[in-house]
Amino acid sequence: MPQFAPALCLSLAVAALPPCVASAAEGGATRADAEAMVKKGVAYIKSAGDAKAYGEITAKSPQFILHDLYLVVYKLDGTVVAHGANPKMVGKNLIDLKDIDGKAFVKERVDLARSKGTFWQEYKFTNPENKKIEPKVMYCEKLAETVVCGGIYL
Asked: Are 150 and 70 in contact (CB under 8 A)?
C-alpha cells in the first residue's frame, strides 16, 4: 500500500461527512435556535443573577453565541444592560434608535415586552458577520423589568 493511501482514505472519509456547523450564508441560526437561546439566557439570568449573567452575555460567552445569533438585554426604558455583539452598547439608552426604514425598533421592542411579554419582531440591522444591513427577526421575552432578545438575519 502506498504511503499516501492512509492520508487519502482519511481525507475522503472526512470529506464525506456532513458539515457540523452551517455558515450564516447557508442559513446559520434558525428561529428555533433564537427561541432556545433566549430561553437559556432567561433561565441563566434567573439562576446566576443579573450581574453575572449580563457580564457573560456581554463577554460573548460561547453558550450565548451561535453563528450570527447573540443575546441583547434591555431595561424597559431602552437602556442596554447586556449585548453579545457590541459591549460598547452597554449602558446606552437606545429607545430612539431607528432602522434604515425609520422604524423605532427598540421603542417597539419594549412596548411589545410590556404588552405581550413574549413576541417576535422584525426590523433591519447590520449583520456583524458581513457588515451588511439585512432583515432581522428577534425573539424576545420579558423578564421582570427587562426584555431578553436574540435574533437571526433572514
From this structure: yes
Number of DSSP helices (H) and strands (E) in the chain, helices first: 4, 6
Q: Where are the domains of the chain?
A: 29-153
Query: For 36, phi and psi rounded to 5 degrees?
Result: -65, -40
Tell me how far apart the terminal alpha carbons of the chain are, to the nearest angstrom.
50
In the chain, pLDDT over 70 holds for what percent of residues?
Answer: 82
pLDDT beyond 60 at 76: yes
3-state helix, strand, coil in the chain (%, to 5): 40, 30, 35
In sequence order, what are the residues at sequence separation of 6 or more whose Cβ sits closer than 8 angstroms to the Cβ of residue 134?
A: 124, 125, 126, 127, 153, 154
CATH fold for domain 29-153 = Beta-Lactamase (3.30.450)
Phi, psi of 135 (to 5 degrees): -65, 140
- Residue 50 and residue 44: Cα distance in Å, rounded? 9
Distances (CA, A) of 151 to 40, 57, 93, 124: 14, 14, 19, 11
